[in-house]
């Protein structure tokens, strides 16, 4: 097997020798280390490498070179190997250029020279970049294959599930990928068996449920213990943060999610405003890091497993799952977040999963290569979705009810959209109908000022509007605001029912619901900030109140 390449460029022979020595010392078993003094020579060799089917995992380039700058080199190298990680070696005086390059070339990191000792100043950064590259790398991938029809809702659910649980898979569309037909014949399947999942060990599941696939992949849908200190329901950023703090502070903690880890943030193509990641990070990277961290602290993770009801028996709380199983815990954290509002429209219901998607831009973008797609919504999630889709779709139209995006989207995203030639914002515009036969082919748009209607070709419609909390299933008399968000802490005093249900001598802790020992954090909580960082902060805070609650019970 050919090893992936780390390519390093520096015009200074001494620096090049030093970086070559350090790279070889640590990475020579897993990567081929190539080094050159000329950026132009390196660029010339890239096309040849590509033709030979080689993979480049990392470019590491000096910024100041006589024939071109490191940023110029990385910009061109990115065109040939777009998934390779890009790092710049900079002198202290070039750090400004490196920070600018974060936006210009989506630089992954800059490393200030000298990097001694490499164990502290070089290897941790490169380990991180290479591990990201490895976990997102697909080419030549022969593992798990999902065969199905592109416009089948069942296939979409399986794709979403595999991506959500961070399992690398190969999507094979039976209508235009010859390998799909080959696999069908090989396993004696017919089109009526689709979607089908072919696993690495050669076994096949036809028309499987998400839990069939989860079980086969070793996801754990059953709890291993009788009693936990803390049960966290929902593994978005709030739940994951609570799991990390709960686990690290010695609480027997179980984290439960009906889909997989990551929540809404896991579907984000690039989170640019999370502290400590100046070049942004994808939702799947954040999720992978967080769930690994939680499990390292001994947190048990159950997924896919939906919680359908909870009830409190004083010190003990029951958490009942959709499959009839039950977990008992001394405290609960509700971190079930929000979902997008479904647009009430039968024509959209008909094509959900077959051209109409709620969120899901990162899962489905490649299916719309060269086609026109529409995004509904004016918030940051819609903006990120549009940016992601613009890489593959021929044209992306953002439909919003307001005249423009200024009131609803962050300025950095508005600027990115303005700079992207194949994105058009359609202000004062609503999608009122989807049309098509087996899959969506067109949408009908209405101008809200003139009421003029027009039918336009649309292969995909991605809806990112509104937020509805996942709280309908909570039957206990937990106080919620009129929109269904859970009231906590001092805010509870505003509600007339509070005095009837709260029987404690103390006030509720901040983030505690009106049922002692049941807490809420993140987007599901009334008054939440709807940000990754605030959800993470609340998840962490909730654990400190759980300790206080457990100490008095
Ligand atoms: C596409 C997109 C991009 C975004 N980009 C940014 C950004 O760049 N910066 C930023 O700060 N914010 C961003 N946000 C917002 C941010 O992701 C959310 O504020 C954050 O994810 C909220 O975290 P949470 O843990 O409260 O809930 P969620 O992320 O909503 O997670 C809730 C989890 O609970 C699970 N769940 C629900 N009900 C049950 C049940 N009954 N049983 C078991 N599990 C259940 C769900 O499956 C889900 O995994 C973005 C959101 C989206 C959708």
Task: Walk me through this protein's architecture.
- This protein is α/β, with parallel strands linked by helices and 553 residues long.
- It is 32% helix and 23% strand.
- The chain contains 18 helices and 26 strands.
- Helix 16 links the parallel strand 19 and strand 20.
- The longest helix has 20 residues, at 532-551.
- The model has no long low-confidence stretch (mean pLDDT 92).
- The chain binds flavin-adenine dinucleotide.
- Flavin-adenine dinucleotide binds next to helix 10, helix 11, helix 15 and helix 18.
Rg is 25 Å
Bound molecules: flavin-adenine dinucleotide
Low-pLDDT segments: none
How helix-rich are the residues, as a percent range? Answer: 25-40%
Based on secondary structure, the structural category is: alpha/beta
Shape: globular
Query: What percent of residues are in strands?
Result: 15-25%
Largest pleated sheet: 7 strands, mixed
